[in-house]
Automatic annotation (TrEMBL), chain A:
Record-linked Pfam families: Acyl-CoA_dh_1, Acyl-CoA_dh_M, Acyl-CoA_dh_N
Official protein name in the record: Acyl-CoA dehydrogenase
The organism's taxonomic lineage, starting at the top: Bacteria, Bacillati, Actinomycetota, Actinomycetes, Micromonosporales
Annotated source species: Plantactinospora mayteni
Cofactor: FAD
Residue ranges occupied by any Acyl-CoA dehydrogenase/oxidase N-terminal domain in the UniProt entry: 8-120
Automatic annotation (TrEMBL), chain B:
Protein family: Belongs to the acyl-CoA dehydrogenase family.
Protein name: Acyl-CoA dehydrogenase
Gene3D superfamilies referenced in this protein's UniProt entry, alphabetically: Acyl-CoA dehydrogenase/oxidase, N-terminal domain, Butyryl-CoA Dehydrogenase, subunit A, domain 3
Record domain Acyl-CoA dehydrogenase/oxidase N-terminal: where: 22-69
Record keywords, A-Z: FAD, Flavoprotein, Oxidoreductase
Keyword Ribonucleoprotein listed: no
Species in which this protein is naturally found: Plantactinospora mayteni
Domain Acyl-CoA dehydrogenase/oxidase C-terminal: 107-245
């Protein structure tokens, strides 16, 4: 057991911290905070990406530093600490980039990974459909064979940042419409291609969703990831590997610190036990996330442990947000920065226990692993 | 950073688990631990011990709890640290006094971490019994584990146990680091890191509180999943439940521990002037 960061990790942390402290990056972060509505973080990511620290777990030829999953986690922690919104990074580098590295062909990797690492191009995920949420195998978006590729038609929803992105990783059906796990294919869709229509879906949270209508969008064969029809295994692996829970644990820590700092003397006597309890939950969330990351780092990825980490971290962040709202209220027009943070947390929290695997599915996965159970 | 058991943890756990396999609940394991040479696990080599630290001590405590054993490991370590029994005698297998004065200072921190380990073990042992029982017990034509209400209870309990286990392992690591005098990391930690603000006292308090609630909650739900059979004298599970009731409060009641943890969190807060006012309002008697 070692809960300390090693010198290599500390050096990386110092390096990204220095990048985030440069005037150009600082200015881009301040510009985001000053704006109204959902901000466009692309200029900020371009400024950070120019320093080559966005994808430290990728090989140097793809714009990385040759580290492991833990190095990416160090960067994610520092982005969060500096107040950099994380969705573009999670989707582009952590999800789409990881899938490309796992099953992408060499030319696909060469085409996209260096631009993702540099913050020049951004990716989002198109999995969910109106009738396919937790039960993703029910997806119906069709990919019909066409000369040189496929024509893709269907509706994808709840996609974050789609309006800012260049390319999407989509799960589509190339096989028999009646089947479930067979015939699902992962493809890259050019979001600027004819037939793609992106519409905003307003959300309770600060970040809005998008509905992406695909009307006979041409996808060349060169944009198919892995074997056509065999995408389900890659999809479930990719979903499971998203579940270290680090981003949820970081939110729990940030919201806990804010609620603690905003405590009034009048609240304090009543709140001591809650302060202790939620502090422990936020700590445990972080420890679970790093324990899941350590398993990834050593190629001992364990989908059940990841489900435990996802469940714990997201439920903890939601519990901390609820506590913060109960302490400070979630008024519509909060006055101070702390109150604004806690009010925003209250609106963001319900999404955490749904995204990347709803809590009930995590419980199913864990329950199914218990020996002696007949599930 | 490697928050995973190392090879020695795994070896120690496996050896102890084998040795404790046939020990009945609430069995006396003093001599068994002596044969394994474990009384001196945490005692300095100069006093005839292994000098392995709390990180390994909590593994021993957890396995003892998992077997619902009546051990002298925790009281022996404490006696060696506070003086009633010489460390060399404890390492050599002397029984510690049955009744000891309540510990304080570093000895209390270390005793709480070991206690947390034992409570994690009680919860884990009870959980394993519940998993086995609910896989075997059939009602309405299928194992009761196949019902989602049962499966979800077992799944959520596994997460609660893992939470307490990690908080305990972290507290043990922090206490070992403190003892070894390794300098604190510079002020370049990420937000919310290190857990428990890097204080062994706070880490021990929250590990014990979390482990105590895991033990009382998980053993209660595990007994429930046994049905009425679980209440009978034949059922091993009732021993876990009984032990959880006494062991969960022996070094501080969870409610008081959570308040003490909250008080420490305030003193580590970022805004000193503000915090002073909050602390004054909260009262200064929380420890």
């Amino acid at each position: 057991m070692d809960f300390g960061f090693d010198p290599h990790q500390s050096r990386l942390r110092a390096r990204i911290r220095a990048v985030l402290a440069t005037p150009g990056v600082r200015r881009a972060i301040d510009d985001l905070a000053a704006g109204t509505g959902e901000p466009d973080e692309r200029p900020l990511y371009r400024a950070i990406g120019a320093a080559g620290v966005l994808a430290p777990d990728w090989p140097a030829e793809f714009g990385g530093l040759g580290g492991g999953p833990m190095s990416l986690a160090v960067v994610a922690e520092e982005l969060s600490r500096a107040g950099v919104p994380d969705t573009l990074h999670i989707n582009t580098v952590q999800i789409v980039g990881s899938v490309l590295r796992a099953i992408g062909a060499a030319d696909q990797q060469r085409r996209w990974l260096p631009r993702f690492a540099a913050g020049e191009r951004f990716a989002c995920v198109l999995y969910t459909e109106p009738e396919a949420g937790s039960d993703l195998a029910a997806l119906t978006t069709r990919a019909e064979p066409a000369p040189g590729g496929y024509l893709v038609s269907g509706t994808k929803i709840y996609s974050l940042k789609a309006a800012l992105c260049d390319v999407a990783l989509a799960a589509v059906r190339t096989g028999d419409p009646g089947s479930r796990y067979d015939g699902i294919t992962l493809v890259l869709i050019d979001l600027h291609a004819p037939g793609v229509r992106v519409a905003r879906m307003p959300s309770l949270a600060d970040e809005h969703f998008h509905r992406v209508e695909l009307d006979a969008v041409f996808v060349p064969e060169s944009d198919v990831l892995g074997e056509p029809g065999a995408g389900w295994a890659a999809l479930t692996t990719a979903l499971a590997m998203e579940r270290t829970g680090l981003d949820y644990a970081l939110k729990a820590a940030r919201w806990y610190d804010t609620a603690r700092a905003a405590l009034t003397p009048g609240d304090a006597a009543d709140s001591l036990a809650d302060l202790g309890r939620h502090g422990a939950r936020a700590d445990a969330a972080r420890l679970l996330a790093w324990a899941a990351l350590a398993r990834l780092e050593e190629d001992r990825f364990d989908p059940v442990f990841a489900a435990m980490a996802k469940l714990h971290t997201s439920e903890s962040a939601a519990a901390v947000a609820e506590w913060g709202a109960a302490l400070h209220g979630a008024a519509a027009a909060p006055a101070t920065g702390r109150a604004r943070c806690l009010e925003s947390a209250w609106r963001e929290a319900p999404g955490l226990t749904i995204s990347a695997g709803v809590s009930e599915v995590m419980l199913e996965l864990i329950a199914g692993s218990l020996s002696g159970s007949a599930r | 950073m490697r928050p995973l058991p190392d090879a020695l943890h795994d070896e120690l756990r496996a050896a102890l688990r084998r040795a404790l396999h046939d020990v009945p609940p609430r069995g006396d394991v003093h001599d068994l631990l002596g044969r394994l040479g474990l009384h001196g696990l945490e005692i300095a080599p100069a006093a005839g011990g292994l000098g392995l630290g709390l990180s390994y001590g909590v593994v021993v405590a957890e396995e003892l709890g998992r077997a619902a054993a009546c051990d002298t490991y925790r009281s022996g370590c404490l006696a060696a640290e506070t003086g009633p029994t010489a460390a060399a005698d404890v390492a050599a297998g002397a029984r510690p006094p049955a009744v000891a004065p309540p510990p304080a200072g570093d000895a209390l921190v270390r005793a709480r971490i070991r206690q947390a380990g034992y409570l994690v073990g009680l919860a884990a042992g009870a959980h394993e019994l519940a998993v086995r029982r609910s896989g075997e017990r059939r009602q309405f034509g299928r194992p009761i584990a196949a019902f989602q209400a049962t499966g979800f209870t077992l799944a959520a309990d596994l997460v609660q146990i893992e939470e307490a286990r990690l908080l305990t392992a972290y507290a043990a690591w922090l206490a070992d680091r403190d003892t070894a005098g390794i300098p604190e990391a510079a002020a370049d930690e990420p937000r919310g890191w290190p857990p428990a603000d890097g204080e062994p006292e706070l880490a021990a308090i929250q590990a014990l509180a979390a482990a105590a609630e895991a033990a009382t909650g998980v053993t209660r739900r595990a007994l429930h999943l046994h049905g009425t059979y679980g209440l009978t004298g034949d059922a091993a599970i009732q021993h876990y439940y009984r032990l959880a009731g006494t062991e969960a409060t022996s070094l501080g009641r969870p409610a008081a521990l959570w308040r003490a943890a909250g008080h420490r969190r305030l003193t580590a807060g970022p805004d000193t002037e503000h915090t002073t006012a909050v602390l004054a309002a909260a009262g200064k008697d929380e420890r």
